[in-house]
Amino acid sequence: MNRAPVNSLNLELLQEISKSLDEVAKNKTKAMILTSASPTVFSAGLDIMEMYKPDLKRAEQFWTTLQDVWLKLFGSNFITAAAINGHAPAGGCLLSMSCEYRAMVSGKYAIGLNETALGIIAPTWFMDTMCHTIPIRQAEYALTTAKMFSVEEALKVGLIDEAAADKADAIEKCKQFIRKFDKIPPLARAITKQKIRQAPLARLQKNRQQDIEEFLGILKNPLIQQGLEKYIQALKQKAAK
After folding, report:
1. Domain with 209 in it
2. Quick check: is 124 in a domain?
3. For this structure, is 91 an active site residue?
4. Which terms in the GO cellular component ontology are assigned (predicted)?
5. What is the 3-state secondary structure (H, E, C) of 50-94?
6. CATH at residue 31
7. Residue 221 catalytic?
């Protein structure tokens, strides 16, 4: 991912990710490592400006594309690994959890689904992804409290699989994970993965339009817009210091 400064997921970046996932699948590539060109941020999550006072047609396209990215990444038949080389809140955490393996660079970085801190309810498929990654009780606590895990906390709870010294080390650990499948028949591995992940995938596929309508309904809520405005103002004040 390479959208300066913090890889905020806007419509265009999501379209590029979706296109890249299509290309990986089309080329029958064995595996993919997801990482960031930023030195300190994996992805800051969804671009707030896509949700603040939005054009509803663009917002619908934005959410549909995010659904596509998740369905392709979480449901891929190729091996996926995330080299998390910085902060990964919200959508950044979602992308990394959608991969099969996560190595995160040690340091003062944080990862988690913190939507409730903005007054936003994480969609069911965000929740499903976290519950698929860490124990349900831990996921419930994290989701309701908007908890951001340190690298050490994330490793302990299983949100990440390994801590790395730097980005190169994180990528190498991802490659080591991928090599574990060298002697495993790829079709057996792929079908096993997809069967394990079938329920969350089917739930979104069955309820895609309802999920879009819920998202648009949230954006129309004045309280949500007020919360987003306060958050944007806080970011501007922080940047000005």
Report:
1. 8-240
2. yes
3. yes
4. mitochondrial matrix
5. HCCCCCHHHHHHHHHHHHHHHHHHHCCCCEEEEEECCEEECHHHH
6. 3.90.226.10
7. no
